[in-house]
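User: I'm curious what two different proteins look like when written out as structure tokens. Can you demonstrate?

Assistant: Sure. I'll show them one after the other, since each token string lines up with its own sequence. Here's the first protein:
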Amino acid sequence: MNELYGAGVALVTPFHSDGTIDFGGLERLIEHQISGGMDYLVSLGTTGEVATLSESERKAVWAFTVEKVKGRIPLVAGIGGNNTAEIVHQLEQFDTTGYAAVLSVSPYYNKPTQEGIFQHYRAIAAASPLPVILYNVPGRTGSNVSPETTVRLAREVGNIVATKEASGSLEQFGKIMRDKPEDFLLISGDDGATLPMMAMGGVGVISVVGNAFPTQVATLAKMCLENNFEAARRLHSKLIRITELCFIEGNPAGVKAILHELGICGPTVRLPLVGVSAQLQEAIRSELETFAVV
């Protein structure tokens, strides 16, 4: 899966002020990513507010994204949830045209055991017509995919090819790197962890910050892949404050506020999310005035 090396971005779903999907904004965002050097795009991950989209809206976004990308860079589709049978059904109905892989978040809310997580992913992998990327984000799901479960899935389920790791645990990253099959890929799921994870052997990041700053995020990943960690550290340091502002009042409200300032799309999010405070918007505006560009 060479397509998964480097920087991917979990695209936001732009909305008009009335909450309907802003396809014009999505097209501008896609072009911003491609011209900025992003290696691949993830359509309808968590950052895309997929939990608030209807089935027809999801299909429309996936199809529109394929149409506008035109095969210029690889695409990954976010298809996950806490109802295994429903995810299997979605995968069986999914039009794979233009997509290279599926990113599937571990089950949230249910808090399954590790055996439950294993069986969930095994069922998904059996139904998926595309390679599957695990997504472990305990801060959102309420449960952790342990290193042992990740490695078991990597070894026993043929078309599970990578994991997007957002546990924040360097110990967990290290155990996965130590025990995984050689061709199984470790991808950072946290912008702030990209540098240390890639220093440990990870192959890249699926970024939120990259929505606004694709060139910087793609350059950081490239530097790490080239073992140019001295330059990567300097760029990582420049990204710390803007990354903090993206997440301080939740994702994707923060990065949408930045995209609004950049003129790419509006700041609207769907309930239960709300837009950022006036105080944070002003902090973002101030940071953008001095933000160092690669």
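Here's a second, unrelated protein for contrast:
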Amino acid sequence: MTSDLTDLIRTIPDFPKPGIQFRDITTLLADGEGLRDLTARLADIARPLDPDLIVGIEARGFILGAALAFTLGKGFVPVRKKGKLPGKTVGIDYVLEYGTDRLELHEGQVPKGARVLLVDDLIATGGTAVAAAQLLREQGASVLMALFAIDLPDLGGMAALAAEGVAARAIMAFAGE
């Protein structure tokens, strides 16, 4: 395994606004060994939980979630932004820093009682992950854990998930915003 996956994360200063240090996972995704190692580390955490489904949050959560689902031999379900899924959907509105957004998934795709793992590339404030967990619970799913490649602990996302009773783990952490 690559000893330090953090070396494969590119930092882009002042994106999307001044003062933000954007942690770009696409450089890790482009590295075959790094992607394999990250997926293996996520699988090591996920395997003992024996989930029924892996649920990935748009957009980079699709990449990591699908890789994890493949590794574990489980199905994958995308949680998307409003209007991106064809057919009948269920959704949840949630508050952003400057407004609101909506997450959706296909109606009936997550059966009642399903044991799911929620996956995304990065957790910052936790708003999107908390909304996704709430949406899954509204469908009758049990959210076993939320898994992330990167945590920005200074922004409190893990604490927000914990406050909602959702266990969470990240492979890497970066200080600051």
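A detail about the second structure: The chain has a mean pLDDT of 95.
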